[in-house]
Amino acid sequence: MSELQSFCYQASYRVMQGLAQELNIRPYHHYRPSGHNTARVLSLRLVSLNPHYLKQILRLRNELTMWAGMSDKYKVRIGWDGQGIIIELPKPPKFWQQVTIEQLESRHFLRRGPIVTLGLGLQDDPKRVNFTEPATGHVLITGLTRSGKTNAARLTAWNVCHNTTPQDARLLILDVAKRAFKWADFQNVDHLAHPIITDLQEADRALCWLTQEIERRAEQSRLTPRLFVMIDELKALMDDSPVAAAYLARIASTGGEFGLHLILTTQYPQVQMLKNAELKRNVATRLCGRVDDANAAANALGVANSGAELLCGYGDFLLRDFTGLYRLTVAKLEPHHVEELPRSEIKLLDLPHLDDVQAGPKLVREPDPVEPEQVAVALFNPIGINRLQRELQVGGSKATRIKNFADRIRNWAQEHGVERIPFHSSQI
Q: Would you call 315 helix, strand, or coil by DSSP?
């Protein structure tokens, strides 16, 4: 038996033995155990265990860490996946495995189109952000320094370049904080819509152009090419620009419908930093590396008790999308992967004048937001517009928007063979 196999066997055995002693829940009597050895953690699933045991097991987090033979630096993370309780036992660093682009390619996990394969989950299943799904518009990537958030953003950009043609998707990269220090190798790739932007005034002009592009696409009924707007170190842009918050809020609220996608990276995702609660609310897909504490984790992912403060450093992330919350190891993007991308001379966008920028985004009356509870009524109880108006007590135009959004989700589910919408409670 190898040293890694010995660790996995002993750690899982001690955890199950401890649960039997403390809570009197025993394997094959109260639950079926199954283990998965992944890149960073040993995932122990207790299938068919009554979920009311979850709170009791949570109180034993420190004991579980001790029983598994781990230090306080790498603590156990506990959650519920809808079928059983998951106990994630971090492996000692000497057993960590790096996920590579070559692994993803050899296993045919990369997909054509605007679909970003980020890495591998707890059962070595690929974790993706699919921008063709109606509920996916923008992504917020957060985490401490050296958590790997810039690598995750660069990996997203590389996926776009690797999986699409410049006619289908383009990149717009803004990095005013570090002057494109970690993005210079993307200069002149075919997919760039404009040279990488490092100047604050030029960044403001680009954001103004994006809001005008929304208006142009709306008038022309045009959704392509998709435009992925990569903004590294969002806090620096927000702190220094008086207009960035308003423009980004406008792009976040309606840009996704017209093929404009924000990919934002920051260490501190509080409303105070984002300057606009509308911006934070519309960036629903979250990718979070290790953060300082539970409060920072809640701000980053939008859910309490996620356990992001217990992640194991660089490359260890939680992904929250419309289907639930998942742990994954993000693949490492190496310089040679970017060097292999096709390159050409990049044309300049016709950015607006600074006077237009300083005037701020157009004051367009936004429709009343569609709430998740309203969409759920239309999704799970298909009814006509008139009845939907009566049940939700809304106007005809809003009822139509609610029904159309529910129909888009239902059609996507049918196209992908999803017979039911999977539900996941918050992981802890």
A: coil
pLDDT band at 129 (very low <50, low <70, confident <90, very high): very high
pLDDT band, very low/low/confident/very high, at 419 (cuts 50, 70, 90) = low
In this structure, are strands 226-231 and 115-121 parallel, antiparallel, or unpaired? Answer: unpaired
66 and 126 belong to one structural domain: no
Domain limits at 60? Answer: 3-95
Regarding whether 319 and 221 lie in a shared domain, the answer is yes
pTM of the model: 0.80
Residue written as tokens 């953003």?
A: 153
- Confidence at residue 428, expressed as pLDDT on a 0 to 100 scale: 38
424 domain-assigned: no
Phi/psi for 196 (5° steps) reads: -55, 130
Q: CA 26: distance to chain centroid?
A: 36
3 state SS of 337: helix
Residue 248, classed as helix, strand or coil, is helix
**Assigned domain for 363 exists:** no
Query: Does residue 428 form part of some domain?
Result: no
Instruction: Find out whether 70 and 312 touch, Cβ atoms under 8 Å.
Output: no
Task: Return the ∠ at Cα 151 (arms to 416 and 105), rounded to 5°.
Answer: 50
